[in-house]
Amino acid sequence: MEVLENQYVITAVCFLFIPLIVYVAIWFPEHVWVALLLAAIPSMLARFVENKAMKTLIYVSLGFASFWIAGETLYVPLGEEWRLLSFTPFLILACANAVAALVAYNDGEVNGTIFAGGSLVAILLTRGPLDAGSIDRFLLTGLLFTAAVVIVVRSTAWARGTWYAIYNAFKAGIYSGVVYGVIYVLRVFDVNVLNISDVGATIGMISPLFLNVLWSSALATSFVVSIALLFYELILYLMDLQRIISDEGVTFVKVGKEEAEKADPFAELVNKLETFFEKFSSYDVDKAAQLLLAMEKEYYRLSAKGVRSPMKANAGRMLIEARSMLLGTQLELPISYVSPMVERKEKRPAEKEFVELPKGSAILVEGPIGSRKEVFCLDLVKRSLNAGEKAMVISFEPEKEGSYLGENENLRLVRVEQNINDMALSISRALEEKPKIVFFNVLYWLAPNYSTTTLSGFLASTIGKLKKSDSIGIFVIEQAMLSPQALSTIESVFDGVIEFAMVEESGKIRPKYRIKELKFQKFDSGWHEYW
After folding, report:
1. CATH code at 360?
2. What does the pLDDT look like over 248-299, one tens digit per residue?
3. Which of 365, 368, 372 is nearest to 294 (CA)?
């Protein structure tokens, strides 16, 4: 087993380095830079720790150790501020900032900020720059010091390349230098003794100290952080790794297309989807539905594992497009597509067989791909339109459903974004029109991308809005998207559940549906054919 695959080894190594760092700093104060060099090693290894609690503890501990060393180095007794003319303390501080920058560059802004959080505890417990003489200035300068560290973290975390990160490091050195200058001005000078009326004299008193701290910290931080990032990039080059920034954080892939695709768990799914699009015209509906269901299951499986990948967003968008293509094909087919040998006139259900949905209710329609559940929902919408009632479709690409329903002045098509919060706002505005029936075709994206708790809360809120507008809501979902437990939780939010299935009879597969649940209503739970 490779070392990086052994979580116990990685975690143990990271924690063993912390007392070693403190030992070197205490017993060999003339070589504190060695301690900070040692701190850089576990700060880069910690990204491979999968346990989030352990990773957080490692980063906080390393942040504490690094900035405790820097804080002790920056200690200047009151009355001996001339020592701030020395460049050495700011080099040590820059080394601690470089470790923080490496954490952010290697494992994202969040973990870099956690590391910076350890610096606050360290600075508050050292004699360093916070030997300010009063509790208010003590706490204020402590917060300012941590803010300076966070500036360095944020400047490097989302840089997409080394040179851009170095440029950001230079800017961060200037910004943090300004903050450090303010810290020492607050520490050395008492506002009460400054002659505010004589601005020139005040500036004359403050400027030498402020400018020296600014110049020293800005130069040291930008130089040391740049060197650290260059060495880090050299390590990636020697390991044939490429650093990639995505919305989900920092990931690494092998250089070269074949190796990169192998390293990215979603790459194979993207390749399958590309093949699906190329050969879509040669598939029949059943074949396309089976392939798409398999790919969606793979997407849900990888998402459930919490796999971080720059290609995940691409895979999600391609699945939506594939779903839209399949939905459009299904809606364009004749009613008897499942079994062409059966006469449409003989098998088309009578109008009375449509489910009568209670006013103000929310219904979940579930089933596998190809079971005609979307057509069932749209036929309910069409029946409402034929009766002269207002109807609405809420979807990512509502023109697909609209092409099936046809032109109608009572039909409103609402396009929503994939972000659940933006979607909730769009739904609230749309329901102000008080439609009689609303078809929601959004769960196939929300289910794999949000937790069951978040999804249940969104649905409960939306259903509350439906009841307030006295509208009937129809939601559609694939059973395979959720585990049985999660599906049961989602079902409990709704007033009723209609289940679709593909049933084999006499050698032919036919879609059937049944009312699985309808609260406070009498209903027939038997299976019915739907063509």
Report:
1. 3.40.50.300
2. 567 777 765 444 444 567 788 888 888 888 787 787 777 777 787 788 777 7
3. 368
